[in-house]
Task: structure prediction
Amino acid sequence: MQQLFISDAHLGAHSNPDNDQLENELIRIVDYCEKNRIMIHILGDLFDYWMEFHNYTPPLGRRLLERFSELHKKQNPGYFITGNHDFWTTGHFKNCGFHVNHESVLMRFDKIEILLLHGDGLDSPDMYLPRPLLHKVLRHPRFISLFQSIFNGKSGNHLMKTFSEFTRNNSDLNTEKLTNWALKVLTQQPIDYIITGHDHVPRMETFSGGTYINTGAYYLHRTAVIYNNGSFELVTWNDELQLFEPMTKPI
Result:
């Protein structure tokens, strides 16, 4: 079965018309994947801000998540590895059928070992990719409990949206950190491929120990990664034709 890996759509970061267009495109991608029996894996930051409360689920991407729920009733669900913008979930992504993971997933296809993660950092010190201090604080249960005791769901998500807009900087895209980290892990561990998102730059780097692939930011480049019959390919979504095409040149 083919596999699709996609990340960094950042739904909610854009104007209402652009958000609607982005969500409609992603729904058409789900339609395409259902038609072609492709399993979809989200590698984080599907949303630009997302915090579930016990009595509140953000309205972002509601139609898209409902479409995923329909898909997962018909075929095996994929993974949702939360990113640094959408890790505050109390179960809604799981209720939509996803296998939810907040760290990393090791998959095996056709005897190929594949490590999936978002790319902002990992808790395990053995993985040499520590999270920034701010990310550790934001993920800490005590901080989340305090935050949710002060704000309700609507105001809390509005504050997160403001914070996300303030901290996002698309002009400062550092690819060296993840590329160098992947080189180290592929050299030291029996992993064939590492796939991440996070730094928004689509690329495929082949080293002696394996290959590192970054999906790129879907909202910026419409890029993703497809696995089929033992090989990976960086692709772009052509919404006019409603299909994926090979990414023919670096972005």
